[in-house]
Amino acid sequence: MLAPATRMVLEQAGIERGMRVLDLGTGAGDVAFEVADMVGSSGSVLGVDQSASALRWAARRLETRDISNVTFLRDDLHTVEIADRFDAVVGRLVLLYTPHPAEVLRRYAALVRKGGLIVAMEYEMRAAGSIPSVPLSERVVGWITEAFGRSNLDASLGARLEPIMRAAGLTDPTVVGLQSYFAPDDPAGARLAAATVRTLLPVIVRTGVAEPEEIDIDTLEERCATSLADGCAIFKPPVLVGAWARI
């Protein structure tokens, strides 16, 4: 779902063939593989993540693709020592999970050559919902954003990327937001909403946002699909905000 918007942000930012790119919080490698295609065989991508399980998955996926310009490194973004220099540093949905995002950007900007790029992509979760408003969709978005808030994570971090970049010492950042839309009869919208709640269910319950009986996770996708169809409502997932700046 995020691939088209991610590609658009990376292209607008200036990722191009031949670049050496560092991917922060690479996870299963989605962004790394997208960048690898853009930089081509004359470029390279190093993906860093602290999750061993995510990197094992990324490595298995790498084996099934005809890609030779991606490598992965397991380490903590806050402490890893990297001596190389890069043409660009990118990160998607990673700053949200760092206590001081501006400090992370400042740290990695030091690894980018003069004229190179820093690219960050984060969600503006509160922009999610439905048009027209459907009560169940709004409750789902409320459960998700409140769970992040009660976990001391900023559900609207994407909207704040410009001042965060400036706090990191990056000048004249460009910021854009991209959002998908799912038609009332498109099951992908309800599936995405229910799957996100299922992933967050332990946090939602633990922080007191909602009770399991209220959510009824096993019927949530069907109920969401029905409410969107009955209300002839478009489902909007969160806005993916992309921000970039030159060193």
TrEMBL record:
Gene3D superfamilies listed in its UniProt record: Vaccinia Virus protein VP39 (3.40.50.150)
GO biological process, one term: methylation
Keywords carried by this UniProt record: Methyltransferase, Transferase
SUPFAM superfamilies: S-adenosyl-L-methionine-dependent methyltransferases
Domain called Methyltransferase: residue spans: 16-124
Gene Ontology molecular functions: methyltransferase activity
Metal-binding in keyword set: no
UniProt entry tagged with the keyword Ion transport: no
Top-level taxon of the source organism: Bacteria
Record protein name field: Class I SAM-dependent methyltransferase
UniProt organism field: Solicola gregarius
